[in-house]
Amino acid sequence: SNDDLTMLENDIFQLSAFLTELSTCDYYFVTCKPSSIALASILTAIQLVDHNFHLECQFIQRLKNFKPDIHQPSNEVDECCIHLANQYTKKSSERQLHPISPASVDRA
Predict the structure, then answer these.
(1) What is the pLDDT of residues 4-59, one digit of tens each?
(2) Where are the alpha helices (DSSP H) in 1-108?
(3) Is 55 exposed, middle or buried (0-12, 13-18, 19+ CB in 10 A)?
(4) Of 93, 98, 80, residue with least CA distance to 14
(5) What is the DSSP-derived secondary structure letter of residue 104?
(6) Please, which residues have CB within 8 angstroms of residue 100's CB and are 6 or more apart in sequence?
(7) 103 contacts 17 by C-beta, under 8 angstroms
(8) Who's near 14: CB < 8 A, 6+ residues apart?
(9) What's CA 44's distance to the chain center, in Å?
């Protein structure tokens, strides 16, 4: 239904924003292009939220319609996806909570 899709899109938006913030705390991403990090954050969020990859295919097709010279995500994007997914899994296992800003200050 439309409500389910809207909730799914919101979850993807929130998670991709979290992943983008997560990348700012990791030296690995210093040499990566910001556009690669942004695309990797979106693709990783889609993969983590939508396990049948339907939305990922839709997103890539829309991206190709918008920018026809894009063929496939680059190796840099693929590597960023892998690193973001690993970092997210690590952070999730550390906190076992709903995603919060990785740049936030913990108050003891």
Answers:
(1) 668 888 899 999 999 999 999 999 999 999 989 999 999 999 988 877 677 787 88
(2) 2-24, 34-49, 54-66, 75-95
(3) middle
(4) 98
(5) S
(6) none
(7) no
(8) 99
(9) 4
pLDDT of 100 > 70? The answer is: no
Band (108; pLDDT cuts 50, 70, 90): very low
Q: Which tokens in the block code for residue 29? A: 């991403």
Distance CA 41, CA 35 (A): 10
Is the pTM higher than 0.85? The answer reads no
User: Contact 28/83 with Cβ under 8 angstroms?
Assistant: yes
Place of tokens 């929130």: 14
